[in-house]
From TrEMBL:
Organism for this UniProt entry: Streptomyces ferrugineus
Domain of life: Bacteria
SUPFAM superfamilies with a match to the protein in the record: HAD-like (SSF56784)
InterPro entries in alphabetical order: HAD-like_sf, HAD-SF_hydro_IA, HAD_sf
Name recorded for this polypeptide: HAD-IA family hydrolase
Gene3D superfamilies: HAD superfamily/HAD-like (3.40.50.1000)
């Protein structure tokens, strides 16, 4: 393998808990809830699937259903879908819905899995190209920079910047092209069998991990190093410069 593509949420990074997410938004708008009220609101938000990167909605309201399947094609659709879900939960201040959405885009809302830095660093040492291919409606590059993982990533291919989303093979093809890699020499690593499995249409190998809390998934990425084997430096002797 000459390159590895990674999904973002549930693969390299994990979003904070719904309760932590709500606490952050409450602090931002300076609104207080009792612990009982906070727990109740967090439970309702989780049931609605209002936290991007968190649990899926238990049901889709009519005002969300029409955009849900294409929410990652643009920043506007992504925001509209998730703020609409949160608005189905009664909160003490209307400003919280936008504050919640803004909160989830901050580096503080995300944490890398325990083995993310180790695996990405090892791939860099072996001269293996690394791309991040994500269905998302906002720029995740600051999250990688804040957590010190950006130097290990050669290219980011984000659905909202291309107007297409996984499993569309064109998104994976764009990443392979950016890495100058033959898809047959690339492995896609992700947690969604339908979305990330779309890379197989190009001839990529696919490796799945489980979308679990970080403390329950300490080393699921390490088998990727066995998949790439002892890959050496690139033909030109250099790795591509990280895309900023």
């Amino acid at each position: 393998m000459t390159a590895v593509l990674f999904d973002f949420s549930g693969t390299l990074f994990r979003i904070e808990s719904t309760e932590s997410w709500l606490r952050g938004a409450l602090a931002e708008v300076q609104v207080e809830l009792t612990e009982a009220e906070l727990a109740e609101a967090a439970q309702a938000l989780e049931a609605m699937g209002a936290l991007p990167g968190g649990a899926d909605p238990s049901w889709l309201p009519e005002d969300v259903a029409s955009v849900w399947g294409v929410r990652d094609k643009s920043a506007e659709l992504h925001r509209a879908a998730y703020t609409a879900l949160s608005r189905h939960v009664q909160l003490p201040d209307d400003r919280l819905h936008d504050a919640l959405y803004e909160r989830h885009m901050t580096p503080a809302a995300w944490g890398p899995y325990p083995d993310s830095a180790e695996v990405l660093g090892a791939l860099r040492e072996r001269g293996v190209g690394v791309g991040v291919v994500s269905n998302i409606g906002w720029d995740l590059r600051p999250v990688f920079r804040e957590h010190g993982l950006d130097p290990y990533v050669d290219t980011y291919v984000l659905s909202y910047e291309h107007g297409i989303q996984k499993p569309d093979p064109r998104l994976f093809a764009a990443a392979c092209e950016a890495l100058d890699a033959d898809p047959r020499d690339v492995v896609m690593v992700g947690d969604n069998r339908r979305a990330d499995g779309g890379a197989a249409a190009l001839g990529c190998a696919v490796h799945f991990v489980d979308h679990l809390p970080a403390d329950r998934r300490p080393d699921a990425l390490r088998p990727v190093l066995d998949l790439v084997g002892g890959a050496g430096p690139r033909a030109n002797g250099t790795a591509p410069r990280p895309e900023k």
